[in-house]
Amino acid sequence: MARKKKQENDPNVHEDLEGFDIRINEFGEIVSTFGIEQLNSFLDENVADKKLQDRGPESSNDQDDANAQPKKEE
After folding, report:
1. What are the angstrom distances between the C-alpha of 12 and each of 17, 32, 40?
2. For residue 65, what is the enclosing H or E element?
3. Residue ranges per domain, the chain?
4. Which of 7, 33, 38, 8 is CA-nearest to residue 19?
5. Are 33 and 19 within 8 A, CB to CB?
6. What is the C-alpha to C-alpha distance for residues 45 and 1, in angstroms, rounded to an integer?
7. pTM, two decimal places
8. Strand 30-32 relative to strand 22-24: parallel, antiparallel, unpaired?
9. Which of 12, 22, 26, 51 has the most CB atoms within 10 Å of its CB?
10. Are the C-beta atoms of residues 57 and 63 closer than 8 Å to each other?
């Protein structure tokens, strides 16, 4: 069997991700051309979170309350 040839051309990507490149260097570190904050904002806008699809709007308020810091009594 012949080996598959690698694709020579660039893949089709979303216009917001033009120029994005990610690699792992010789030390095992992830090196990217975009910052993590930029990638996270893109994913938040364009990808639905499967874990949060079943929740209603009232349950998101409960989660915010659970993460809130308790008020200090004087």
Report:
1. 10, 18, 20
2. helix 57-67
3. 19-47
4. 33
5. yes
6. 43
7. 0.50
8. antiparallel
9. 22
10. no
Length of the chain: 74
pLDDT, residue 62, reads: 52
CA distance linking residue 63 with residue 21, whole number of Å = 35
User: Hey, what are 62's tokens?
Assistant: 């409960």
**Full pLDDT tens readout for the chain, 74 residues:** 678 777 677 778 888 888 888 999 999 999 999 999 999 999 999 988 888 777 766 655 555 555 555 555 54
Short-list 69, 70, 49, 72, CA closest to 60: 49
Unique residue bearing structure tokens 């659970």: 66
What are the distances in angstroms from CA 69 to CA 27, 64, 72? 39, 10, 9
Which one-letter amino acid corresponds to residue 66? A
**Amino acid sitting at position 35:** G
